[in-house]
Every structure is written in C-alpha cells, then in structure tokens.
Amino acid sequence: MQKILTAVSRTGEAVPAVGLDFMNGQHSALGGTVIIPRPGVYQIVSTQPAYISATGPAGAAPGSTYLAPGLPQHLIFGLNDTIRSAAVDADGELFVVPLKTE
Q: Which pTM value belongs to this model?
C-alpha cells in the first residue's frame, strides 16, 4: 500500500491520507468531465499535459491547475463537484482516485 502523508488541498491545507481507493476511481478522456461522487481527497493523474478545473472551463487561465503527465496532484473536492479537463497538446486520459483518509 502506498502511504501519502501530506496531501494538500486547493487552499494549501495538509490532509492526512493513507492509500488509494482504486475500487472507487474514475477515468475520462482529456476534454471530458468527472463528477465527484463523495467529498474527500482525490489523486488526479493525466497521461498527457493537461489543465483541470472545478470552478469553470479548464485551460491556461486563473482557476485551472496544470497537470504534468504522470505526476499526481492531491486535491480536496466536495460532493458533486465537477472536474473539467483540457488537453494541452495531445489527447490523453485523466484518472481520478479517492484517497483513504485517516
């Protein structure tokens, strides 16, 4: 099991988390959306450079987060938040997996 000690929220708060809950993970092509089924901490990984946003359209603008391919981001989302994604150069995949928190 992978132990993650310092997942960080969008506001910079540290959130203790242990392991990944792959059984409840989701997947989408870049350019699509993922609806968060329950509030919590999520690991987000893309296979290509991408932008994600939970506040509006994803892209190179304020409110979006850049994802380097293969580099996980740990973010906190609320119930029914919608993650929008946009590819930078090439089509790819987005993986959203909840973390098991302590």
A: 0.75
Q: What is the set of domains in the chain, with CATH numbers? A: 3-101 (2.60.120)
94 closest CA partner among 39, 61, 49 = 49
Distance (Å, whole) CA 77 – CA 33: 14
pLDDT tens across 74-98, in order? 888 888 889 999 999 888 999 998 8
Q: Tokens 């740990």 correspond to what residue?
A: 74
End-to-end alpha-carbon separation of the chain, Å? 14
The two tokens of residue 59 are 């892209």
Residue 26 phi/psi, 5° resolution?
-130, 165
